């Protein structure tokens, strides 16, 4: 049978255009049999084909054993295929790897450098901590191999070993350091060591300070640019720990910046200076300023002069790092940065955008926002974005030739063209989010002119891109008051926030809201496609309701609210609409009632009829929240409608409409309250919710029920309500007795002599006789209709009003700040400001006062809830991230004693374990021999021969390994394996314990 | 460190995938297609840095417990790419790598391939699958760059291939006849090819690479 090579596979693939996947399935089937072949050539070829197809997503974990087989081939090229297979396809759960230990050991000792390199470059892909443990002793000597090619690869392999098995560094670090310190070392090896040290460096910089002199030497020597870059990066992490380094570094770095031709090195020098905090750490300020000026000048040059997008991008990247600590320095380069905002390259724009939001201030916010708005305006919204987003596309199938491509084209880098791409919606979102961030920063402290900002907000509504589905899902479930769920909500939130916080701007804000709510403005103010801006309606409808006094045309607003199209809005928005409708309606009614006439009445009735109609349609809304509100208001409106129709006189609006219902919606003004304020109110100490207030409650209830049963009677019921009692229950003759009783019960103030109180009352009556606000007490007989009289009648004439206790409400314990009391925290504008406005801050309590236990209590509760304390929460690992957490614990500082002690201890442990293993082995052999004797007695000796052969083979394998066997000793190989097992067990125990805790 | 090296063509067909951390095949594929979606949408005028694709950005919450300089972390933060004729070369790396230096690294990679294949084109890489891996193996081990010198890379690959040379040759010359044969012929015959690949990088301003090699 003729087997296909990889070449044939690819050619076959190219000739099976159209049904590639079928062809591949066929190939895979062939490979499955071929890879099981006894012929190593066939096996290796099949494996190579499988590796090729794995690149296209055809899983081959099933073949991992065959990978091992090919790895053990004697031919280098076949071996290479095997190792490639291991590197490409072994995953953390590949178990056969444990079987490869001996093979790897053997290959590491190979005389041929290419063969030896194979395990070195493959190990980083497959290493596990147990494998690292058993291979460490074999890899370590490679560090002093005669060939630099081997040494440089070994250094990196050791680094990857250390990532999974940090103890590696304890033995390897001194040797790695030796390589670095050796001035005669091959430059490639030195560079590799520097790379590794740079990788290790940021994790534990303090351990690498002793290397500084040598690194400095290398920096001065100016060898390989790649290495210099890494050294500079390393120094950037060291300088914060050792300020003296700064002084040494300034000169060589300045020198490099001025002389180097390599942009990468120039850039990294500047970057290193910024990251290492060298600007500010230089001793004399003049030098620091000079350096800063030099760096910024070079960065500016990278943007302006070179006109290369890559340089622009990285320069902005560097600016972004500088702006965190020196916003003023960056602001000086504002002109070029602003230009980058309009760069055709989206990545550059994004960086510039981030940068400007870092350096924004009252002075430059207007031009920045203006520029961004212009960008948004100038390009149409991409409506079909959802299709563009097809990121989870179908799996890649190997194809025949890609159409229209010439794979034989020589690889020449593309020439840059300059074309203007359309604005993608991602970028649009980012821009809008940044505008909102910049302007909303510190409670709008950057806004020079709120009228301008309101205009911007209204315009932003029109520029909103369609919502992305996930965002829409989020906003449905999210609490409405949390800003940042969707852009439309954020715009709406800021509009509302300004209306609430900035009282002076309320009329303007309300008019903006009105313009957004009007149906006639929909096409002009809302995005032409999608319903991404709809959430804004929820916020603006609240505004037009709450601040309806500022509406230009309440009538129009109401029309928009009860428009037919409104019923189709989302439930959340509808709820807000339903609350706003009565408020606006009452505003109209109030205006109408001023000059009440027949025509007004008709107009109101008609309007009312339409409102009722709208509410009726919503009273069967599938969303319960909407339905409930609609039904409640519907009833209210029906009452109004009844009142209107049953109105007798034409000259006055019904009381219900003019005063009763408006009372429902007016009251204290709403102020912004800090999110956590509620939590800070202390419950009064005496508040005891566990105890019942009246211990006799159940018996009282019992009593009342029996009384009811006994007395309930239609006639009595009728009589109780219809007949007026002939006499008050408290009779005149009882007065003398009852008054003091009442006084005693009600008053917490000192009980007064009844006579004194009687005198006082007489005085009071006298005083209030002519006061229209007091009801005269004299005309007892006539005033029976007043409710007060009824009360008085039932409680006794001389009910002591003064005796009603007035509890002194002491709130100073919690120190509630009066609303508006601290409402002017001098977020004050600069002289530039057109109009002085006050921005109300969130109302809150002084944090010191309640923090005495109360504040910390919920926090500790939360902490207890979230994660077991003590163990820091580790965020989820990124896909491609290596886990280096083990390295954080390992110190590399030369502590020879500890090291030696540690090694000694380990040796002792090993010796102990070897002894134990020997014992176990001896026992096992004894038992086996005993079994053998029994079996030979029975004529079966299969087991015994196996044991014998096994024993013979071991020393042989060892000589092959080139280690030479000390026959008397236990084979070291076996101890290694056993030890490893034991270690593994230990580790798994530890892990289990960790998992438990 | 470098987290992954990817090479794919203009229609997203992978030519080389190398992940320096273990990742299951399906995730590899979706990452590949996400990056392809991002990179193929970029105009030639754009800079050579990509934003992180959704798969990589979703977990990239800054690690609050990381002690020392927060500028670094183990999570990949930058994607650098270069487009040569029909192929995209992608490097995914953490912030310990210099973005501009990575661009140079790709250039060295391509130059090494060009040296080994003579006027390298996509077809060479398809058929020279193993050599492609070998070249990368000489340059990057376990995500750390071990060699940037062109000569030494080429030397290392040649040493490891030994007798392979003839075999690879036969693959190319033996003939992919048919419509694309001319394409190879063109590649071979053009003297400018090597110059093209070796062309100094535009951004580096001529001799900008300076002391690199």
UniProtKB/TrEMBL annotation, chain A:
Gene Ontology BP, a term: protein targeting to vacuole
> What protein does this entry describe?
AP-3 complex subunit delta
Bias class Basic and acidic residues marks the residues at 756-772, 988-997
Which residue numbers delimit the Clathrin/coatomer adaptor adaptin-like N-terminal domain?
21-639
A single cellular component GO annotation: Golgi apparatus
Pfam families per the UniProt record, alphabetical:
Adaptin_N (PF01602)
What the record says about family reads:
Belongs to the adaptor complexes large subunit family.
Q: Which PANTHER family match?
A: AP-3 COMPLEX SUBUNIT DELTA-1 (PTHR22781:SF12), DELTA ADAPTIN-RELATED (PTHR22781)
Q: Which keywords are on file for this protein?
A: Golgi apparatus, Membrane, Protein transport, Repeat, Transport
Locate the compositionally biased regions of type Basic residues.
947-956, 978-987
Subunit arrangement?
Adaptor protein complex 3 (AP-3) is a heterotetramer.
Report the transmembrane regions from the record. Answer: none
As for what it does, the entry says:
Part of the AP-3 complex, an adaptor-related complex which is not clathrin-associated. The complex is associated with the Golgi region as well as more peripheral structures. It facilitates the budding of vesicles from the Golgi membrane.
Where is the protein situated, by its record's location annotation?
A: Endomembrane system; Golgi apparatus
UniProtKB/TrEMBL annotation, chain B:
Give all residue intervals belonging to the AP complex mu/sigma subunit domain. Answer: 1-158
- Do you know which SUPFAM superfamilies this protein is assigned to? SNARE-like
| Residue stretches spanning the membrane | none
Instruction: Please give the Pfam families that the UniProt record associates with this protein.
Output: Clat_adaptor_s
The superkingdom listed in its UniProt entry is Eukaryota
The family classification in the record reads: Belongs to the adaptor complexes small subunit family.
Q: What is this protein called?
A: AP complex mu/sigma subunit domain-containing protein
Q: Which organism is it from?
A: Endocarpon pusillum
């Amino acid at each position: 049978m003729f087997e296909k090579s990889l070449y044939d596979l690819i050619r076959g693939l190219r000739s099976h255009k159209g049904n590639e996947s079928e062809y591949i399935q066929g190939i895979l089937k062939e490979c499955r049999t071929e890879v099981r072949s006894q012929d190593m050539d066939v096996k290796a070829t099949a494996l190579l084909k499988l590796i090729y197809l794995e690149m296209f997503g055809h899983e081959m974990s099933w073949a991992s054993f065959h990978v091992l087989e090919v790895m053990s081939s004697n031919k280098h090229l076949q071996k290479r295929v095997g190792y490639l297979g291991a590197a490409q396809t072994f995953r953390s759960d590949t178990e056969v790897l444990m079987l490869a230990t001996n093979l790897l050991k053997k290959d590491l000792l190979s005389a041929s450098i290419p063969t030896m390199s194979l395990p070195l470059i493959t190990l980083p892909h497959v290493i596990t901590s147990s494998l690292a443990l058993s291979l460490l002793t074999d890899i370590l000597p490679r560090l002093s191999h005669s060939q630099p090619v081997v040494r440089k690869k070994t250094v990196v392999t050791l680094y990857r070993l250390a990532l999974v098995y940090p103890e590696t560094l304890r033995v390897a670090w001194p040797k790695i350091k030796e390589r670095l310190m050796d001035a005669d070392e091959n430059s490639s090896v030195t560079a590799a060591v520097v790379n590794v040290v740079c990788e290790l460096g940021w994790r534990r910089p303090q351990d690498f300070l002793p290397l500084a002199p040598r690194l400095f030497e290398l920096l001065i020597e100016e060898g390989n640019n790649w290495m210099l870059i890494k050294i500079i990066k390393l120094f950037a992490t060291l300088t914060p720990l050792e300020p003296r380094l700064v002084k040494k570094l300034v000169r060589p770095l300045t020198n490099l910046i001025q002389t180097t031709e390599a942009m990468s090195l120039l850039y990294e020098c500047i970057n290193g200076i910024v990251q290492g905090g060298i600007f500010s750490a230089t001793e004399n300020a003049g030098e620091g300023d000079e350096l800063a000026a030099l760096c910024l000048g070079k960065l500016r040059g990278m943007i302006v002069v070179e006109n290369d997008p890559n340089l622009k991008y990285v320069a902005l990247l560097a600016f972004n790092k500088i702006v965190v600590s020196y916003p003023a320095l960056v602001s000086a380069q504002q002109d070029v940065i602003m230009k980058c905002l309009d760069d055709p390259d989206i990545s550059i724009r994004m960086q510039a955008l981030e940068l400007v939001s870092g350096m924004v201030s009252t002075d430059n916010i207007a031009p920045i926002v203006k520029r961004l708005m212009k960008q948004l305006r100038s390009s149409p919204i991409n409506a079909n974005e959802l299709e563009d987003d097809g990121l989870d596309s179908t799996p890649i199938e190997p194809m025949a030739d890609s159409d229209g491509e010439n794979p034989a084209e020589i690889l020449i880098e593309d020439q840059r063209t300059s074309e203007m791409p359309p604005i993608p919606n991602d970028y649009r979102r980012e821009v809008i989010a940044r505008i909102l961030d910049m302007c909303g920063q510190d409670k709008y402290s950057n806004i020079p002119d709120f009228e301008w900002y309101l205009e911007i907000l209204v315009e932003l509504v029109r520029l909103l891109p369609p919502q992305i589905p996930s965002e829409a899902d989020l906003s449905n479930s999210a609490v409405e008051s949390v800003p940042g769920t969707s852009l439309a909500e954020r715009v709406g939130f800021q509009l509302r926030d300004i209306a609430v916080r900035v009282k002076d701007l309320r009329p303007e804000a309300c008019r903006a809201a009105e313009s957004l709510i009007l149906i006639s403005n929909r096409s002009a103010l809302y995005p032409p496609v999608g319903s991404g801006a709809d959430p804004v309606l929820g916020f603006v409808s609240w505004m037009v309701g709450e601040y309806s006094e500022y509406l230009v045309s309440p009538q129009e607003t109401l029309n928009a609210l009860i428009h037919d199209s409104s019923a189709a809005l989302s439930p959340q928005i509808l709820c807000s609409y339903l609350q706003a409708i009565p408020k606006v309606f009452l505003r109209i009614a109030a205006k109408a009632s001023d000059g009440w006439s027949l025509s007004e009445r008709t107009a109101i009735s008609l309007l009312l009829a339409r409102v009722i109609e709208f509410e009726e349609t919503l009273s069967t809304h599938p969303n319960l929240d909407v339905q409930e509100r609609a039904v409640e208001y519907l009833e209210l409106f029906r009452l109004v409608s009844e009142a209107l129709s049953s109105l007798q006189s034409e000259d006055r609006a019904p009381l219900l409409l003019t005063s009763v219902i408006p009372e429902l919606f007016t009251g204290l003004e709403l102020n912004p309250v800090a999110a956590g304020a509620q939590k800070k109110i202390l419950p009064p100490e005496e508040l005891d919710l566990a105890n019942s207030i009246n211990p006799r409650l159940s018996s009282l209830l019992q009593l009342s029920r029996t009384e009811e049963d006994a007395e309930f009677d239609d006639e009595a019921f009728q009589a109780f309500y219809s007949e007026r009692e002939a006499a008050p229950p408290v009779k005149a003759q009882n007065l003398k007795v009852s008054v003091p009783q009442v006084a005693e019960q009600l008053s917490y103030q000192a009980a007064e002599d009844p006579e004194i109180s009687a005198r006082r009352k007489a005085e009071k009556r006298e005083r209030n006789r002519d006061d229209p606000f007091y009801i005269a007490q004299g005309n007892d007989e006539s005033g029976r209709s007043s409710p007060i009289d009824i009360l008085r009648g039932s409680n006794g004439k001389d009910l002591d009003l003064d005796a009603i206790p007035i509890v002194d409400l002491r709130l100073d314990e919690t120190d509630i700040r009066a609303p508006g009391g601290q409402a002017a925290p001098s977020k004050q504008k600069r002289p530039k400001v057109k109009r002085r406005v006050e921005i109300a801050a969130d109302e809150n309590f002084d944090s010191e006062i309640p923090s005495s236990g109360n504040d910390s209590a919920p926090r500790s509760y939360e902490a207890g809830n979230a994660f077991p304390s003590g163990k820091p929460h580790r965020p989820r690992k990124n896909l491609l991230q290596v886990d280096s957490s083990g390295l954080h614990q390992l110190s590399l500082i030369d502590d020879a004693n500890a090291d030696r002690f540690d090694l000694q201890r380990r040796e002792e442990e090993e010796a102990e374990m070897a002894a134990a293993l020997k014992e176990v082995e001896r026992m096992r052999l004894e038992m086996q021999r005993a079994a053998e004797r029994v079996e030979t007695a029975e004529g079966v000796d299969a087991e015994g021969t196996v044991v014998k052969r096994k024993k013979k083979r071991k020393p042989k394998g060892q000589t092959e390994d080139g280690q030479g066997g000390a026959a008397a000793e236990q084979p070291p190989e076996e101890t290694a394996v056993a030890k490893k097992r034991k270690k593994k067990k230990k580790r798994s125990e530890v892990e289990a314990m960790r998992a438990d805790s | 460190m470098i987290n992954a090296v990817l090479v794919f063509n203009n229609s997203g067909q992978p030519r080389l995938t190398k992940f320096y951390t273990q990742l299951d095949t399906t995730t590899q594929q979706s990452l590949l297609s996400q990056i392809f979606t991002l990179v193929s949408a970029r105009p030639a005028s754009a800079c050579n840095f990509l934003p992180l694709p959704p798969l990589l950005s979703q977990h990239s919450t800054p690690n609050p417990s990381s002690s020392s300089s927060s500028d670094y972390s183990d999570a990949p933060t930058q994607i650098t790419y270069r487009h040569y004729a029909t192929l995209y070369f992608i490097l995914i790396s953490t912030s310990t790598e210099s973005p501009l230096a990575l661009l140079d690294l790709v250039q060295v990679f391509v130059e090494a391939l060009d040296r080994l294949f003579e006027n390298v084109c996509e077809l060479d890489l398809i058929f020279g699958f193993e050599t492609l891996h070998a070249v990368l193996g000489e340059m990057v081990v376990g995500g750390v760059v071990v060699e940037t010198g062109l000569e030494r890379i080429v030397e290392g690959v040649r040493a490891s291939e030994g007798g392979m040379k003839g075999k690879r040759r036969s693959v190319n010359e033996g003939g992919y006849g048919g419509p694309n044969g001319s394409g190879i012929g063109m590649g071979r015959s053009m003297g400018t090819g090597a110059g093209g690949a070796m062309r100094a990088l535009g951004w580096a301003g001529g001799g900008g690479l300076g002391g690199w090699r």
